[in-house]
Amino acid sequence: MSFWSELDAVRERWDVLRHPFYQRWSAGELTVEELGLYAGEYHHAVVALAAASERAASAATEPALRDELAGHAAEERAHVDVWAGFAAAVGGDTARPPAPETAACAEAWAGPGRRSLMGTLVALYAIESAQPAIAATKADGLRRWYGIGEGDGTAYFDLHAERDLEHAAAGRRLIEQRLAGSDEQALLAEAEAVLRGNWELLDGVERACGREVAVA
């Protein structure tokens, strides 16, 4: 099985669109309070994604690659403020300390001091390649069920439904250029860690909502 096929299998295993919280989102079963709780927790993941992008740029030694990754990092850092627009629309508190599951997800995403450039590129690709479908589904649910239409409330999701198609394509290109001779199993482990972290963040939100969570 090729690296990309194995990575696709990892993505399928941790497809958060199958998570009960997102299924309730799509069915219009969440309360505004639950959306707000989620917004406060996932804020930490948005910050961690920006941090990972910045670490990738710092780790790059080729000037052209460093410049490309720095541009990506600046965009992700700006998206933290875009997320704040959604949080405000649903009464989320982005200053709240993260739940344990959220903190673990943020650490896995940011990868402080432990990840190679390739590991970071694969982690970013694993996150961003999943985002277009997730973001589009969330935006549709907000408009359909929760009365949140155009503007700050959906801007983050509308943006990522499109921009992460481009980010994922760029990330795949960079990985393919550097994949020969890499420890593919270690890279797949990085992808699994970030995707599982996202799933478990949602588990934590479900627990905070008073719901039982199945053991993965």
Describe the structure.
With 216 residues, this protein is mainly α. The protein has a single domain (3-208), classed as Heme Oxygenase, Chain A (Up-down Bundle). Helix content is 76%, strand content 0%. The protein contains eight helices and no strands. It has helices at residues 3-13, 20-26, 32-59, 63-89, 100-110, 117-145, 152-178, 184-208. The longest helix has 29 residues, at 117-145.
Walk me through the topology.
Blueprint (H helix, E strand, L loop, with lengths): L2 H11 L6 H7 L5 H28 L3 H27 L10 H11 L6 H29 L6 H27 L5 H25 L8
Shape: globular
- Top-tier CATH class: Mainly Alpha
- Overall mean pLDDT stands at 96
Distance between the termini: 25 Å
| Radius of gyration of CA atoms, rounded to a whole number | 17 Å
CATH fold description: Heme Oxygenase, Chain A
Q: Which key features would you list for this structure?
A:
mainly alpha; Heme Oxygenase, Chain A; 216 residues; 8 helices; 76% helix; globular
Question: Care to give the gist of this entry?
Answer:
By secondary structure, the protein is mainly alpha-helical. Helix content is 76%, strand content 0%.
